[in-house]
Amino acid sequence: MQTQLETFETNLGSVRTAVTRTSPAAFQDALADVVDEPAIGAPLPFADVSLEGTGVVLEPTPDQLREAACGVTAAALGVADYGTVVLESTPAGAELAGLFPDRHVVVVRERDLVDDMAAAFERLGERFRDGDDDAVLATGPSATADMGELVYGVHGPRETHAIIVEDDAE
Amino acid sequence: MSSERSRKAERIRQIMATEGDSVERNARGFNEGRYESVARLEDYDAYKDRARAIKEDAIERLPELIERVRETVEENGGTVYVADDAADANRYVRELARERDAETVVKSKSMTTEEIDLNEALAAEGCDVWETDLGEFVLQVADEAPSHLVAPAIHQSREEIAALFNEYFDPDTELETAEELTAFAREYLGERIEDADIGVTGANFVTADTGTMALVTSEGNARKTVAVPDTHVAVAGVEKIVPTFEDLQPFVELIARSGTGQDITSYVSLFSPPVSTPPVDFDDDGPIADDPADREFHLVLLDNGRMDMREDDQLRETLYCIRCGACSNSCANFQSVGGHVFGGETYSGGIATGWEAGVHGQESADEFNDLCTGCSRCVNQCPVKIDIPWINTVVRDRRNRGAEDGRLDFLVEGLSPDEEPAGMDLQKRFFGNFSTLAKLGSATAPVSNWVAETLPSRLAMERVLGVDRRRDLPEFERETFVEWFRNRDVPRPVDADYHAVVYPDLYTNYIRTDRGKATVRTLEALGVAVEVPEVASSGRAPLSQGMIATAEDHAREVSADLEPYLEAGYDVVAVEPSDLAMFRGEYERLLDERRYQAITERSYEVFEYVYGLLENGVDPAPLRSADNGNGVGSDLAYHSHCQQRTLELEAYTTDVLERLGYDVRTSDVECCGMAGSFGYKREYYELSVDVGDRLQEQFEAPDAADRTVVASGTSCLEQLDGLLARQPRHPVSLVDPDGSE
């Protein structure tokens, strides 16, 4: 029997999303290993990890958005059953940073994992009614079969990488 | 009428030659993926029930929900416009474009904007409109209509797209691979998105309580279309509304699995626009402004016939459709021709009949409605459980009734004691009244068979009735199955535990009497007291021609004929799966509840019945087993019947045959292609054979080529007989203790 975290990792793998697991303390080192330069991002809404002090540009201009090789943003939830991450839109432009660059690095906390879509919609229902009401359920890279074969990286990222931040051992 | 059939046959031939291969590869790929993906979903059936219930409730309460959406979207800062029809919707969006001096409009995939021809309306306003979904982009460049609800360019191969792009765009380096084509389109459309003044999307769902729209995509173009321009217009049919945000969940679980066979698409956007992402002005140098107040959102809810469909007891179900394309992908005919043949102005596949009749009018459904043979394979695949064959039957019936008086009617008048209007299509009338013909053919056999097979007869039948002369006609038996049973000198068993009527369907009674006799001997060998009374034909033949009133008459006659037996405790055993499917399925609509229940609860397919006997402890020893196969090898290739599989009855036949020592390999094609009268019709003969080729391929593969071919349906047997060198057999002939075939 897999744990929720293991299930999430397995399913991320089966939707072509690479996984790095890290502690809050080691987060910035782990990030440095997986970020391509130039990188843009949106502030992480988490207390224990941050993009401050990394090379990630947090208030990109349109040119920087266009030129970025990598975008780093947070996930509000991770859905173990599907390997899905929930990307909330923010006034800072998280949606853009996770969409335009070729590579998307998504930061998801272990404590934000849920088992399945039913649990995800329960949590999202609360958030939507509280006003956080734009989100994308993202599962793997952007893809199309419209050109006769399956191709990754159409209008959205070609590569996806999840950094899972473990809960602090109490 | 004859030249009309030739035109149709030619059109089908041409599309099969040019688009058939791509359509078949893609549709079958989606279909196989669907079977695998839904099998992985634990609560698949429960989700279907929930999805269905949500849609029923939403359509029931639609007027109230529309007002609720208006409130919530306005609270969110957007605007709602309910458009009466296409012209109204287009006018609204054109005015928006005019007010904003919009030069460039980018769109993500939306069948609803295809329905109203929004692109043409915006082009007339002087806008440069670009489809950003790659499939739609291909169609825009090729100036073609979608051939599939979900994958609109399903009919185009990579090579064809490369040739198209190379000619149209004349790139510096010739494009060849799918990667190159995708990269080119990404860059080309990326520039259009950067320049866009308005982004237009559809919506897969709209929630009334939060004003959220769900967009189910994989490319990311819908996200960019929403995020970049400061003005977002969503065009959605009113039927897309669901009551609550949580109602989205079952649909998220079902839609991609049902459509393309993925567990989920890359992106399910849940936006409550205007979205909180700042719009991007690519001419600006500063950080992307944090000013979502700049955004504008307009939700155009389209009626265009939908509120009338809601009032129409027969078409209402269409509004539950989530346009996943499962009915297309699982349809044997669609797999051969795609949406350019099996589709109307906008929509394609089985459900298109409902959509086209509802939004574009009956005529738009007329051209392709006959492509639905009623095989029922789509029924279990539909995530909202729409009875798609029934919608096709109803629209066909309305079309028959709308027909004008015909000149040639006197030709079939004597053969058509039906309830249908005088002017309806002769071919349909001929096949719909097959019971009368069979009676006459049998009474005058073998002369009727000789006459029918002469060249002048076949030519006349082809010209007047559209019966393709390349098909062998069924041969009528002089002694019917019922007569054989009556004339036979076998005493009824006393104190039998089981009593059954073997239903003498048209084919078993007049044409393939042997399988009826085999059924009687099989059941009697297992200790069943059998009767074979005169019973009316089920009504399957008229129903498949859209002759509902006639089918209703048949159903009532069958009910009356069987009533004394049912009251006396008899079960009803059907040899022909399509007739059993009538008893179990359509009779619910054709009979009152009491009569329907009386028949449906007591009727069984022959092997289902035998299986039940064996499960109840009856000794199978009297049945012929594989080691006493009378010249039949023990290895079988079995093609179950489409309706039999929909009723989930295939396993009974394979189980009983395996108990008797046979090794059974089954086909997995959706339908044999014959589908009753369909394969006899001149305009569809070649399509029917193309569909049959897939079955032929499976049964001629090395692992099946030496096996005895077995099939349960009359149509399937006729089709296999024409396709294979081996003579196919009905499975009951194998177990018949006295089988001397």
TrEMBL record, chain A:
Q: Where is the LUD domain?
A: 63-165
Q: Name one Pfam family in it.
A: LUD_dom
Coiled-coil stretches, from where to where?
none
- Give the InterPro entries listed for this entry: FTHF_cligase-like_sf, LUD_dom, NagB/RpiA_transferase-like
Record's signal peptide = none
Protein name, as recorded: LUD domain-containing protein
> What organism is the protein native to?
Haloterrigena salina JCM 13891
UniProtKB/TrEMBL annotation, chain B:
Species name for this entry? Answer: Haloterrigena salina JCM 13891
Which keywords fit this entry according to its UniProt record? 4Fe-4S, Electron transport, Iron, Iron-sulfur, Metal-binding, Repeat, Transport
Annotated GO biological processes are: lactate metabolic process
Q: Name one GO molecular function term.
A: 4 iron, 4 sulfur cluster binding
Query: PROSITE patterns given for it?
Result: 4FE4S_FER_1 (PS00198), 4FE4S_FER_2 (PS51379)
| Protein's name according to its UniProt entry | 4Fe-4S ferredoxin-type domain-containing protein
* Gene3D superfamilies noted in UniProt: Alpha-helical ferredoxin, NagB/RpiA/CoA transferase-like
Q: Which residues form the 4Fe-4S ferredoxin-type domain?
A: 361-391
